[in-house]
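Attaching the record inline, Q. Sequence:
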Amino acid sequence: MQALGNALRFLISKAIGWLISVKSVPADIEKELGIDKNRPILYLLPTESFADQLALHKSTQALGLPSPYDGIEIEGKERKRRYFLTRPQSLFTRRIAKTSIEDVFTEYFHIHREHPELDLQILPVFISWGRSAGKEKSGFAQLLASKASPNWLRKLMIVLFFGRDNFVSYSPAVSTKQMAELHGSDKQIAQKLVRVARTHFQRKRQTLSGPTLLERSTLYNSILGADSVKQTISDEVKQKGSSYEAGRSKAVKYIDEIAADYREGLIRTGDRVLTRIWNKIYDGIDVGHAERVRELAQNGHEIIYVPCHRSHMDYLLLTYVIYHEGLVTPHIAAGINLNFWPAGGIFRRCGAFFLRRSFAGNKLYTAVFREYLELLFNKGYSVKYFPEGGRSRTGRLLPPKTGMLAMTLQAMTKGINRPVSIVPVYIGYEHVMEVKSYMKELKGKTKKKESPTQVFSAIRKLKNYGHGFVNFGEPIQLNQFLDESVQDWRKDKMEDDKKPKWLTPAVNQLADTIMTRINRAAAINGTALLATCLLSSKTQIMSRKELVKSVKDYLNMFQHVTYSEDCTLPDETAVNLVDRTLALNRFEQSEDSFGQMVSPKDDSAVLLTFYRNNVMHMFAIPSLIMGAVFANLKMQKADILRLVETIFPLLKREYFMHQSTDEAKQYAEKLIDYMKSVGMLQQQGKFICPPAATDERFHSSWLLGRAMQETWQRHAIVLHVLETEKVIGRAQLERQSQTLAERMSALFGMSSPEFYDKNVLSAFVNALRDNQHLHHQDDGNLAFSESSLALKHAITPLVWPEIMQHLEQI
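Structure, as predicted:
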């Protein structure tokens, strides 16, 4: 009988096996879920299905797990390895029959009483086909939508349509040994296990497929029926003398302009297209800490993704990664500039909703947009928006725009029936397709308007982009955040036309927390490391041997003294990393009789600043330490730490660094100890000195000390203008600083237009203001102070002498 069953399974497997392609989530179940492959494993699935078992078999083969078809010997008796909660529906009724799973587990727990050393791992597995949640109204989509226990005919159709879009999702194993130690009889424990498993699989289905899609009529009725929208229309009728129907029609146009028209089928098609594109242009996409998001989704959280924004690729890459991590793709807030034919319609059907750059003065648009956002939250859709508002042209994080965050907090406090969590996301690249246009815009060239020609031109040029990086930062649970930062926020009722006093400071604090957590989850990559080294070099050219040595020293430094637990480093040797990065053909390589040399390509040094700036916050404190020691030739450790204490608050504000000042001093102390242990610094009596010029660590130490030089120069320029003018308006301070920075850039060949970028200078002025280095006068002007002078004295030794000499002569 067993042989006949095996033969039948073999024949059916051959018949439909070619239809099924699986993706296992997570890919590393040992690391993420703690599964021990050496201990006995049982599989628990929601429904008995031949196709599900076949998909599980393919997945276990790829992961090195025992096949579900194999038996398992437990205490001398051969038993099955796979079990199910229910049987599929019959063909003619909707009745779902239960299996004897409770009796099976009751028996296992009874065995535990006799053999307490036994410990089985019950591994819950959810098989998803197509991940279609269906619509509110019945139709063909509902026939293929995710159902608890479809009959064999419906399952056959699902496999025919979605066999290539299959996810095998594993959850943490349940230890039968631990379960057996719970209070209650064996049967009661088994019943509890089955009950928890049913709830778990229901949540898993929601996590993978998402909520039921909204019908258009439901969307219109929900938004147009909202009190705030009706009131705003009525107010416009009174003010402009128009009819209510005209106002309502205007609101409908706004809904059509804003709202997404999510199509799961297009997501599936887009996945196939993007897979081909990624395989063409990237040699890998590294994803970090995705388990955090899966845990939130499993626990029923409303998830809001807030990534940094460095490229138009961000829209596609993050959604692609989320999809392949077994999560529902989010609705994406996109600028109205991307709503052009044909891209706008495609983006809208992939979940994009569009917003104008400014809502100022348009109360009806604001009301409609806010209600739409609240509707998404309340219906359980995950959402993604970019807190910076636009793409960073410099590679560093931009100051956040707080409008969407404010709407998020308003929606949450008005009542969302599930916990809300914001997930900061770091996105990085070894090559960004827009980087040349960014540099032109920073030099004053007008930004080109997005168009079909621009899109097709960009697609045609896509090639050899190296690695992409997506790191999910530490989530922020909004209830917990407000409990810690705002007293009695639950008692202060939120109204659309009246904001509570706590909202603006809370939003600003939330925005800053998000940006610091994005940078805390940074990914160091080859292009960023090579750019940092070459731009720090006096001539912007290095021997390949020196380059590999410096890269190795910096990787070792960050491995031994980690910037944060969330940041990620390349998982390869320095030699391989340099070779792979040079193979991207973004650097000039030449050779003489002494060996190979590496430099930026002609006129491309300025482009490298973008990649350097992606990770400059990680180099800030190490560079400050090394720069101070090289500038002073010898310093006591206490003096270095005092310098860190003085300057770090400015760096924290400008570079969105996560440490407190005390934590930064502790981090600096660890860095100093490490640098001394490997010879990057030397201890001579009570003084710390740079290594000798003949030391093998000298070059990488010297480069590290120069990495932040442009930052110190920019700071010195602003402080020089302040000292010269004594009292000055903020706008004038920024304007004069920019003019002076442009002159210094022309005279001394600064490699980046960000050196005199107004936004960067403004960020430093903000940091001076926030840290009380400026006096605010009654007329709004800023005054140079003793604190400003002390800061200038601290920064001046870090700046090249020729720069300071020229500043003093102006």
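The first strand starts at residue 22 and ends at 25. Confidence is low (pLDDT under 50) at residues 138-145.

More tomorrow.
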